[in-house]
Amino acid sequence: MLRTIQNTTGAVKQQRPFIVGLTGGIASGKSTVSQEFAALGVTVIDADIVARSIVSAPSDTLDKIVAHFGSEVRLANGELNRAQLRNYIFSDPDARAWLNALMHPQIEAVIEQQIAVHSNEPYLLLVIPLLAESGKYTMIDFTLVVDCRPECQKERLIQRDHIDATLAQQMIDAQATRAQRLAIADGIISTEATLAQTLHQVASWHQQFSKRQSIIA
Questions:
Q1: Is residue 39 assigned to a domain?
Q2: What is d(CA 42, CA 210) in angstroms, rounded to the nearest whole number?
Q3: Would you say residue 136 lies in a domain?
């Protein structure tokens, strides 16, 4: 549970950690950045990991996805066929919107529960890939954007996922633009230089966030 305190009027208020929202485009380097924060001892709550747990079989949510998209999105072992689902949602904006409407409320609810578990920590890192698109997650106090050029994203995505350039571009185009992400940024980590330079930026932000006080909500 979140810690509670009483103010001078006797009203009980909740105290929670300072919450940093980490976001960025696909293949921008979010995983590298979040892993380094974790290595520095920061609790990381990742929306993608939460989403995977929600659709892990057996799951009512997985059953709804299969009912909507067809049996092709379920593997022989009963789990979600992520590659097939990806093909559907990145080529069909309506399909993507339907899936987001199903998943986002559940993801946000689990994240709120996890924040409550870690209420004694100075700050938490929430990794929200679609933060700019969703307009949700109002609990975030500071938005840190992992940034690189779209051309860099595309090259990394083709190499990482072993996909063709057309699908890579569709996946990038399905997300917010670089300008839209930078518009919500309170801070930026650039991942276009060396790994050492990226990790140096993480260490610098960690120092700043560690000095933050808990939030009285």
A1: yes
A2: 9
A3: yes
Helices 60-69 and 93-117, axial angle in degrees (round to 10): 170
- CATH (domain of 35): 3.40.50.300
Domain extent, residue 33, equals 17-55+109-212
Model pTM score: 0.85
pLDDT tens for each residue of 152-177: 999 999 999 999 999 999 999 999 99
Quote the tokens at residue 106: 């559940």
List, for residues 77-98, the tens digit of each pLDDT value. Answer: 999 999 999 889 988 999 999 9
- Domains of the chain: total: 1
Phi, psi of 28 (to 5 degrees): -90, -15
Q: Is residue 90 part of a domain?
A: no
Cis peptide before 58 (omega within 30 of 0): yes
Of 171, 134, 141, which is closest to residue 155 (Cα–Cα)?
171
